[in-house]
Design brief:
alpha/beta, Rossmann fold, 10 strands, about 10% strand
Length: about 425
């Protein structure tokens, strides 16, 4: 399973700085965007072990969960991206140097084995959105689609499949991060079984430990244990229901229909209001600008009334014939500015490693948006005014001149 040649991007997922989690799929998205910008045909993923038992040494997850994530999520996950044709799971960190030395095109930018650089967070997707780029769509291999269609035909009798992916794991195990199972039971029991077939997809960490309140429904253990089958089920289901968890990332970057409830939980850093604003460029109530309208963030708690309201609203959108594959875009100027701020923070961080034409193109798009927002924004978002005041503090001295040199070389016409 290997693809060689100058048309291949070598993407290093370095577990010394990147998590063994569904964040890997954001990394894949960013790698594919880079591949497309670079005019390359394929991606080869190299999984580089970290220094602490093969991982980065944080305490968010126990070792056995990290190991399970690599085997059951990261490795099969490469098959969800059509351009990803090969992968290598290294046993030793020093093996990465062999791949690095022969790679013609490398992601993340400025990555080296001795100075690894992660790239798996949303500000980079926000930057791509400003540049007018589209995310790639994950999809399960066709043989798993056949299995999913067979399940729906035989077990659901051809009814519309409604999945509920539950969160029931040992880490971050607070009530704020788990399903309100009583409310979900009430909702699922209220579905018209002549039309819908509800099914529970358990947490992969504890696939046989389904809350007793939900045990009366069909439980699709196979989907929790096999990522490719999970993805095929999501793609063939009528709608998929979530609270914040890893599998939603796969659904979000696919043609699946999905609703995400209870987005904010202030006892975990990645589900706080501040995180969504700084890292996702999103305020409470917004939808991600690059996300397709077949998905929706529901910012309220997963109560029966909220779930039912949003389910009915989803059915209305489907019944209206609206094109749900359109991106949300921006709702107002406030969201534009929050989005741009997340991108600028990302650019400044990356420019401390290397300054590229992608940075200049992104800054040019920001300046162009500023011209549409009025004189104050136009002045604030002008490239010189974004860069010059921060040279020597947040970004290296000479950054503006470096950008001007790139402009002359690539004829971006930014200055």
């Amino acid at each position: 399973m290997e693809e060689q040649g100058s048309g291949t991007l070598t993407a290093f997922y370095d577990l010394s700085v990147s998590p063994a989690s569904y964040d890997f799929f954001t990394f894949l998205q960013l790698a594919d965007l880079f591949r497309i910008r670079s005019g390359l045909k394929y991606i080869k993923v190299v999984f580089v072990p970290g220094d602490v038992n093969g991982f980065r040494g944080d305490k968010f997850k126990p070792l056995h969960v990290n190991q399970m994530m690599v085997r059951n999520v990261l490795i099969p996950g490469v098959s969800l991206l059509p351009s990803c044709k090969s992968y290598h799971l290294l046993e030793r960190r020093d093996e990465a140097s062999e791949f690095y030395s022969v790679a013609t095109h490398i992601f993340p930018r400025a990555y080296t084995v001795d100075r690894p650089l992660p790239d798996y967070l949303y500000p980079a997707l926000n930057a791509a959105h400003l540049r007018g780029e589209d995310i790639s769509l994950f999809t399960a291999p066709e043989d798993w689609h056949r299995q999913a269609r067979s399940y729906i035909s035989s077990q659901a009798n051809g009814k519309k499949l409604v999945t509920l992916t539950i969160r029931n794991c040992s880490y971050h195990a607070t009530h704020k991060r788990q399903n309100n199972v009583a409310e979900w039971r009430k909702f699922l029991n209220g579905l018209d079984t002549r039309i819908y077939h509800p099914v529970i997809i358990p947490d992969a960490e504890s696939p046989f430990d389904v809350p007793v309140e939900l045990a009366e429904f069909d439980v699709l253990v196979e989907a929790s244990m096999c990522l490719l089958f999970r993805m095929a089920i999501y793609e063939n289901a009528h709608v998929n229901l979530f609270i914040p968890n890893g599998p939603f990332v796969c659904a979000k970057f696919s043609k699946s229909n999905a609703l995400l409830f209870k987005v904010i939980a202030d006892d975990c850093v990645s589900t706080t209001e501040d995180w969504f604003k700084r890292m996702n460029g999103t305020r409470i109530g917004d939808q991600l600008a690059f996300m397709h309208q077949s998905k929706k963030y529901v910012w309220e708690e997963d109560t029966y009334d909220v779930i039912l309201r949003e389910f009915k609203a989803f059915e209305d959108r489907v019944g209206s014939g609206k094109n749900l594959e359109q991106k949300y875009g921006f709702s107002d100027t406030g969201q534009v500015l929050v989005h741009i701020e997340s991108v600028i923070q990302y650019l400044f961080e990356r420019m401390n490693w290397i300054i590229t034409v992608d940075d200049l193109v992104t800054l040019k798009k920001i300046e162009d948006i500023g011209k549409l927002l009025g004189s104050d924004a136009m002045n604030k978002l002008k490239i010189e005014n974004l860069i010059a005041p921060f040279e020597g503090s947040r970004i290296p001295k000479g950054s503006l001149e470096a950008l001007k040199g790139i402009d002359r070389k690539y004829k971006v016409s930014a200055f």
